[in-house]
Amino acid sequence: MRILLMGKDGQVGAEFARLRLPGAQLIAAGRKECDLRQEPSIRALVRNIGPDAIVNAAAYTAVDLAEREPELCFSVNAEAPRVLAEEAAALGAALIHYSTDYVFNGEKREPYVESDPTAPLSVYGASKAAGERAIAATGAAALILRTSWVYGARGKNFLLTMLRLAREREELRVVDDQVGAPTSAAAIAQATARLLAGIGAGSIRAGETAGVYHMTAAGATSWCGFARAILEKRGGEKSGGAPATRITPISTAEYPAPARRPANSRLCNDKFERAFGFRLAPWPQQLEEVLETV
Question: For every one of its 294 residues, what pLDDT tens digit does the chain have, with 9 covering 90 and above?
Fold first, then answer.
């Protein structure tokens, strides 16, 4: 199986590129190899490689900045996926694309299921929802995987920010009224590799299982709960034996940001498990595994 990875330098892309993929040839592309803002650049890359499967880990993820750069955000998150899906459909290739909990407004009290209507609160969320629709309209054999609160041992993310700030400050004020499932980039990459192995072996038929799936860590917490877990698992101390950093819960209203976030980001993973036979590990377990590599 020849696999084209888009977004090799992002959190999920970098983790995926490090995996061993028996029986597969991986071609990893980043900004140097392809300009996602330019449709001809995308088409030329795909046609030159002729992949059996495409993993689109490329995305515009600067949620707040997107409010000031909507055209760029939609170009990368909606138009580029459409082009990738069109090329995948023409080749008969499978496409795995990542989406987000931010396609929902967070007003539902229970975990969201795939059939719930999208109602994004931000430009970023709207661009990802548009990308989902654009992919579906092509008829490509695409698995659209919605995940949430992605973090890892590298890049810019909540985990690394909390660890850095804990070394600098006595107190961290963290939002406690937004709830979701912190999901590690490594877990997402590993699950993707498992799906591709199934597609390659024929046990997963991408054309028959095409559609939207929720794929997040099991369980849920708030950002404040996540921050506490990070520091507890790291001993809660600043470097040099300084006193433990205090975590103070605050409301969303006390931490204004350009982009609105959903209060409830919990996603139900039942459909994914029924289709593919596995779930991602609970978020505390994923956190422990990531902290071992930081």
Answer: 999 999 999 999 999 999 999 999 999 999 999 999 999 999 999 999 999 999 999 999 999 999 999 999 999 999 999 999 999 999 999 999 999 999 999 999 999 999 999 999 999 999 999 999 999 999 999 999 999 999 999 989 999 999 999 999 999 999 999 999 999 999 999 999 999 999 999 999 999 999 999 999 999 999 999 999 999 988 744 444 444 789 999 999 999 999 999 999 999 999 999 999 999 999 999 999 999 999
Residues 6+ positions from 198 with CB-CB distance below 8 Å? 204, 276
In a domain, 286, yes or no: no
Q: Range of 204's domain?
A: 2-155+183-218+266-281
Q: Does residue 96 lie within any of the structural domains?
A: yes
- The answer to whether residues 80 and 60 touch, using CB atoms and an 8 Å cutoff, is no
CATH of the domain at 61: 3.40.50.720
Say if 229 falls within a structural domain: no
Count of structural domains within the chain: 1
Which member of 60, 98, 102, 124 is catalytic? 124
124 belongs to the catalytic site:
yes
| Structural domain includes residue 245 | no
